[in-house]
């Protein structure tokens, strides 16, 4: 079991009783513990460095209220900054999808294979139907795995949304355009496009999804990433961020036992808000992302 950060810092500050300020010396020692906690949570090093620098700047010279120890005061700064970095200031707004367009609002899903894209399409369709009363159409542009198309059909039917069938002989761009045409004719409010994911990053896959993006100009492009993957999230986030103008992130598998450091790394690289968390395999396992809760979880 990892010590929680408050306990860790309590050990460090035992030696600094009576200090009423966060100083260069006491802060530096405590920040070493914060850095370790973040690395243990699998946050990527560049994100850790940037975060520590920001906390240091905020903490130095901060008066410690008499009821707090310097350790508690620093934990406060760390928690606040971490939550802010992950979008706490955005509040519920971070989870709002943008529908300010001529219907259908198109949502393009991007991410590696196995991260939970197709499952998240189903969850999102259910969420939009139930919470926003939207008429939703889904389509799969994964022409490499017929099983992926069947899986999307199954989750779509499960949540009572409409499914546009595609065939593995079609081209992804043609599939997306045909689905868009269908959605317009049948007055769908939202079209969610699931895309192929490879096990690793692959130039052809990036070109393909970029071509779909150019063809249909989605209002939301959501990068789906698995909270369990830790450091690997960095490479895929960078590749998708370089290839596509992402508008948000869905962080899946937060019901697992990872500390979720990927959240901070991915946010650091893409700069876009984490809009939703996946918290189970079931169709109701999608929640608005809670930045403060995530901050506490990462800190252990
Ligand atoms: P895709 O290849 O990205 O489309 O991934 P899938 O949607 O097929 O999901 C891969 C596996 O992850 C499936 O077994 C899903 O049930 C599972 N999965 C997806 N999202 C979650 C989640 O939030 N929590 C858990 N525990 N499992 C999930």
UniProtKB/TrEMBL annotation:
EC number, as in UniProt: 3.6.5.4
Keyword set includes Plastid: no
Gene Ontology molecular function, alphabetical: 7S RNA binding; GTP binding; GTPase activity
Catalytic reactions of this protein: GTP + H2O = GDP + phosphate + H(+)
Binding site for GTP: 111-118, 194-198, 252-255
Domain Signal recognition particle SRP54 helical bundle: 1-86
Alphabetical UniProt keywords: Cytoplasm, GTP-binding, Hydrolase, Nucleotide-binding, Ribonucleoprotein, RNA-binding, Signal recognition particle
EC top class named in words: hydrolase
Subcellular location per the Swiss-Prot or TrEMBL entry: Cytoplasm
Superkingdom of origin: Bacteria
CC terms in the record's Gene Ontology section: signal recognition particle
Segments forming domain AAA+ ATPase: 103-300
BP-aspect Gene Ontology terms: SRP-dependent cotranslational protein targeting to membrane
Residues in the signal sequence: none
Subunit structure of this chain's protein: Part of the signal recognition particle protein translocation system, which is composed of SRP and FtsY. SRP is a ribonucleoprotein composed of Ffh and a 4.5S RNA molecule.
Similarity annotation: Belongs to the GTP-binding SRP family. SRP54 subfamily.
Domain notes: Composed of three domains: the N-terminal N domain, which is responsible for interactions with the ribosome, the central G domain, which binds GTP, and the C-terminal M domain, which binds the RNA and the signal sequence of the RNC.
Function according to Swiss-Prot or TrEMBL: Involved in targeting and insertion of nascent membrane proteins into the cytoplasmic membrane. Binds to the hydrophobic signal sequence of the ribosome-nascent chain (RNC) as it emerges from the ribosomes. The SRP-RNC complex is then targeted to the cytoplasmic membrane where it interacts with the SRP receptor FtsY. Interaction with FtsY leads to the transfer of the RNC complex to the Sec translocase for insertion into the membrane, the hydrolysis of GTP by both Ffh and FtsY, and the dissociation of the SRP-FtsY complex into the individual components.
Protein name per UniProt: Signal recognition particle protein
UniProt organism field: Solimicrobium silvestre
Lineage of the organism: Bacteria, Pseudomonadati, Pseudomonadota, Betaproteobacteria, Burkholderiales
Region of the whole protein represented: 1 to 300 of 454
């Amino acid at each position: 079991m990892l010590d929680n950060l408050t306990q860790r810092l309590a050990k460090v500050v035992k030696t600094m009783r009576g200090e009423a300020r966060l100083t260069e010396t006491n802060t530096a020692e405590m920040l070493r513990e914060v850095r370790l906690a973040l690395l243990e949570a699998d946050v990527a090093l560049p994100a850790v460095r940037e975060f520590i620098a920001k906390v240091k700047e905020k903490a130095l010279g901060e008066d410690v209220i008499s009821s707090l120890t310097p350790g508690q005061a620093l934990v406060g700064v760390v928690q606040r900054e971490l939550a802010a970095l992950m979008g706490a200031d955005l509040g519920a707004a971070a989870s709002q999808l943008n529908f300010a367009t001529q219907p259908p609002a198109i949502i393009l899903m991007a991410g590696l294979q196995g991260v939970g894209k197709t499952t998240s399409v189903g969850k999102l369709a259910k969420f939009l139907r139930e919470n926003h009363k939207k008429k939703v159409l889904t389509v799969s542009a994964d022409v490499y795995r017929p099983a992926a198309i069947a899986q999307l059909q199954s989750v779509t039917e499960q949540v009572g949304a409409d499914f546009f069938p595609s065939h593995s002989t079609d081209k992804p761009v043609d599939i997306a355009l045909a689905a868009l045409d269908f959605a317009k004719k049948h007055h769908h409010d939202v079209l969610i496009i699931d895309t192929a994911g490879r096990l690793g990053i692959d130039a052809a896959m990036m070109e393909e999804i970029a071509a779909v993006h150019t063809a249909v100009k989605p209002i939301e492009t959501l990068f789906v990433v698995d909270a369990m993957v830790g450091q690997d999230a960095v490479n895929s986030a960078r590749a998708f961020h370089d290839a596509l103008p992402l508008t948000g992130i869905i962080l899946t598998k937060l019901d697992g036992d990872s500390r979720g450091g990927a959240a901070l790394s991915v946010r650091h690289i893409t700069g876009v808000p984490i809009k939703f968390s996946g918290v189970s395999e079931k169709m109701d396992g999608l929640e608005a992302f809670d930045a403060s809760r995530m901050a506490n979880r990462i800190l252990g």
